[in-house]
Request: fold
Amino acid sequence: MTAAVALSNAAVKRGGASVTHEIALSVSPGSWFGLIGANGSGKTSLLRALGGRLPFAGGSCLLDGLEVAGDRAGRARHFGFAPPPDTLPDMLRVREVLELVSGSGEAYRARLEPLWQALGLDGLMERWIGECSAGMRQRAAIATAFAGEHAAVILDEPFNWLDPVAAFDLRRALRAMVDDGLTLITALHDLGTLAAACDTGLMLADGRCAMELSREMLAAARRDPLAFESATIDRLRSRTAGR
Reply:
């Protein structure tokens, strides 16, 4: 089976400084891939490069078998991508933002149906972005990633700013969409979500691959989450101790 996403020796720079080095990963179609690591480990930069928001400084990026390392626009078209919530335009309503992203009037409603209740969109559509709380902005930003016609979506720490009920409902809705064929890549801080929801993943430390998280490893994590959390934290401590 051709990987939905395959990176080899991928490198990313920001402001002229190298932030990720020799990244290798593979994401199967219709799976949930989790990216974890300490603050500053390179998660956001890697996701932004994968989604075409930053260039790759080197290496290979295959999407469905097609090399696109040098094609930022092609990568941006390929993925639904949630913007940072604080970058949403204050002077627009949530509905207007979704209409702009979808480019097709109210067609976004059908695409968002699996997430509609989890994101509480009925109560958000007519709100001005500038009047939204942090949690509301987060929900609106997540919705934008699904408003277009994308079979693959990137979310950077989607559960930040959400209350426990909203986070639980969103995780369950995302898992159902993955089981229905969505390819989902998320940066996460929550090891519980990683263990409970993701199929495979990768730990980053100081911009490098620190641990591959296989299906077997995450299946074992679901059976004994405390042992998984302890082992993962120990690995993170050991890789960041010299920072």
Q: What stands out?
A: The longest strand covers residues 17-27. Residues 164-179 form the longest helix (16 residues). DSSP finds nine helices and ten strands in the chain. The radius of gyration is 18 Å.
